Amino acid sequence: MLATGVNHSVREFIEMAFGHVDTKVRWEGKGLDEKGIDAANGKVLVSVDPRYFRPTEVDFLLGDPAKAKKVLGWTHTVELKDLVAEMVDCDLKSITSKRGRSDD
Q1: Suppose 68 and one of 17, 38, 74, 81 were both cysteines; which one would form an S-S bond, judging by CB atoms 3.0 to 4.6 Å apart?
Q2: Which domains can be identified in the chain, with CATH numbers?
Q3: Residue 45 contacts by C-beta under 8 Å, 6 or more apart in sequence?
Q4: DSSP assignment of 10-73, as one string?
Q5: ∠49-3-78 over CA atoms, to 5°?
């Protein structure tokens, strides 16, 4: 994985992922009490879990792709929204495949 030099929030990532399956996320609460709610039915889709915080959490991370460009001639060609769509499609395919097995 290489950095793109483009910053996105976890919230944006979540909205892109759920948006790919036509689900709008409404945000409620603040900080540790914040939740992402399905705007259509009120179901909680996402909530904060401190178990997944980094030991030394930072407010802002942004990778610098300059060395990859200089040494390898590399620049990113896939936008985050396209990568998220690919990840969601792969997860959906995996879920569908597992449900189709008779031994599960």
Answers
A1: 74
A2: 10-100 (3.90.25.10)
A3: 14, 18, 23, 25, 35, 36, 37, 38
A4: HHHHHHHHHHHTT--EEEES-GGG-EEEETTT--EEEE--GGGS-TT--S------HHHHHHH-
A5: 95
What are 27's two structure tokens? Answer: 């945000």
How far apart (Å, rounded) are the C-alpha atoms in residues 96 and 21? 15
Kindly give the confidence (pLDDT) of every residue in the chain, 104 residues in length, as a single tens digit, with 9 standing for 90 and above.
778 888 898 999 999 999 999 999 999 999 999 999 999 999 999 999 999 888 887 778 888 999 999 999 999 899 999 999 999 999 999 998 888 775 55
The answer to whether the pTM exceeds 0.90 is: no
